[in-house]
């Protein structure tokens, strides 16, 4: 149900005194107040207080002291009421009031509160060990506690609440058996409780948390607020704050949804675990968790970026988890991730009571003068209850109620007739049957109310049950219905419900609710449908939206006749699930809605049918079910009564599947071009188009865009043309796939068309990226770096002005394929960080991952950071890419990872060969993927350059030529690749005097000299050094010596360790072979060795040391 219906955190529960009759007073007098307050807490109960209270650590106490120490717990019915499956006999001194249970008034109540947690020392010690390890090591802890219902899992786990210090927080959420399809239910409850705890801490704490969340999430917190309404009190999204900032609707809103949610939940966990240290999160009844909630559990525990102490404890009913269950499969996945994602995982199974445990309970609750009596009753009780703590307590309550126990007030001891007990009782193995039998003894209207309440979830509000009862109650009872308030009062007095100050009610135990559900018998389907309809039509629109999933689940469970009028509610549920990235739920609601459709719906409600099929296809595609998505798509595309625009959402889904999921870039490109043609956007009349033609069109567009004044771009507004938005989407997909397949001509044409589209129809979601691409073309086609910088600045301006832009893509591409040609490489890390943050917020993992790779590997390598530092980051980002199944990024990372490992690993036998434990080259990995081929080419060349003779590297340089630049045009890594080729070529030319090396080296040097006029300080010292090598060839030794020293001074300011080593090495050779300055040469060689050592190139150090 709604969060308000589920929570009610700041109020203690109290029993409602029933004063309507003398008999009710007698009933209540038999229950001591301590026992009443412990109904929810002790070892035998599996009810999670979090659903109602949030387990807030330092606010209102959620569990009384006696309850924490009790062995029994949820007194399913009042302690004086029989609850077992027993041969009935008439008790002495009994009396009866209509609608109430019989009671034995001459016996004192049983005190279970004094028993303590029996037989659980080992389990509690294990939890405390894990907690202490968390505090000591800081490594996250995941503990999964299994056991049968009633064995006391929740009480054992809640014992940790007293172990958490004041600065920490113990908080939890519970999953519900009737709302197991509701996305994120238990997780949302837990985070909602955290939010309320912050709210109680005061305005300063709220402001600090708001600032931390805003810093990470920006304006992307709306999805979380949908899931966690309490977050709205902390985090307010104000889209109208800046009138100069516009907003753009994206064509594909599902794109990146899962990744956005992963990032958002991880940010929440990081921020809260920083405020509360440590943070202990208890998720109860995981066997009922939906797939999205289990995924969030994995997100939180596998977050390698969260260094704060976080412990997640989950409980589950072992009898409901088998090898086919979602939880079983998720546990298997988590076991495989412990080392890679640096968290501990402990699995704990809570077993039933041993005979000695039962004996301890009886000895504490029923003190006797005869020890043999205690042992005998313990043996019988263990047989009857099968060692289950909950059943054990219920069995003792049966004996108490039935008058089978005698109390001696003089000695304050109990006695019993064991033979009589054995004769009169049977096994209590099925507690639900036992409870159902007792519920059937309640008045008819109370039973009816319980049946209604059972379908509302584990908690509900009085207005909600009143609505259901007022509409539906009179249909299931034969007489006039009693007011719901009086019925609730009775049910609370019988310890079936618990209540709070805010008219909130919850079931005292899950088993009670299961028993109430059994009362429906064959009418269960009808109950659910009628209650769902009552809520849907009786609640306000806002209330229905808040409890939508619960209501629709009730309708679907009861709609056995498949009545088509309920297709619209499934559509709304599917839309909401999609909007919060619960794609499994979206798929299921869409599927249910489609199953309710009739053929005539396409004539009368075409929009409804089309939306269901579209959401179904979108959800299945996100889930990786390409075949299912294709089935929905083909069903719609086969119709003749739909327009091209109406079919487009499904058709772009196929383009996305081909390019992003199946990695079939060529097929995706061709499919996009066919769709563009249908929309009247024909890029070329022939295929393939000639590259010169495409280049000429690109040149015209570059000049046209460059001629526009800055005011033109600053005054642009967003496009409201739906058709043009789809065209822009398809052009963007076509451009990406053209780039990855090396189709330069089509890449030029699609980019040019995107620019023309923006200038003619206004800004769309790809406009910033479009001008980024245009900046790249300015380099590739015209070598116009000034135009490149201007277009890139226009792109960044659009990112800031319009929300909804693909910011991560625009920043990454613009910086790493544009600005880093004319700006210092050191500035790239700051921009990469911006791209990472933007990408994670918007769920763009493609460019987020590329930015991460650049931040952790590429930029540190090109700027000569210590190799060991880079290697330390490689496993983390590789694990992150594997988590998101980013195949292209995994291949690229492995290529560089292996390259750096070969440089740094002293045990590597063949460091110049690009094969090892991380990367094993296979044609299937890079066949047709030009970006990966470029990575492979660069890594191979670097290893040969650093480990082989320069002449070997020079020969390879002649062979590969400008292949890297052709495979990955404009990417800044071409700078170091070209520089190292030039160094090897000059070294070989100086040594061999061969012109082929000199000509190739001079060609690269001239290109670098052109770039050196800009602000890239790395290229500037490249130019100085290559000039020194060139002058050496020319025998201009004095000028060469000056250039070497200028280059060394320049690289020294930047502290590029690898090139400090390289320049000193080459300067040493110059001093020795050209000037015969042996002493200076040796000094420079020693300097080279020290820099290489500091960099971490162990094989290079060993090779140079052999020359000393």
From TrEMBL:
Tell me the InterPro entries matching this sequence.
AAA_16, Hybrid_Histidine_Kinase, P-loop_NTPase, Sigma_54_int_dom_ATP-bd_1
Query: What SUPFAM superfamilies does UniProt report for this protein, alphabetically?
Result: P-loop containing nucleoside triphosphate hydrolases
Spans annotated as Disordered: 24-43, 68-102
Q: Which domain of life is it from?
A: Eukaryota
Polar residues compositional bias, start-end? 30-43, 68-83
Q: Report the residue ranges that make up the Orc1-like AAA ATPase domain in this protein.
A: 117-313
Membrane-spanning ranges: none
Name the residue ranges with Basic residues bias: 86-101
PANTHER family assigned: HYBRID SIGNAL TRANSDUCTION HISTIDINE KINASE G (PTHR43642:SF1)
Q: What's this protein's name? A: Orc1-like AAA ATPase domain-containing protein
Which organism does this sequence originate in?
Answer: Cylindrotheca closterium
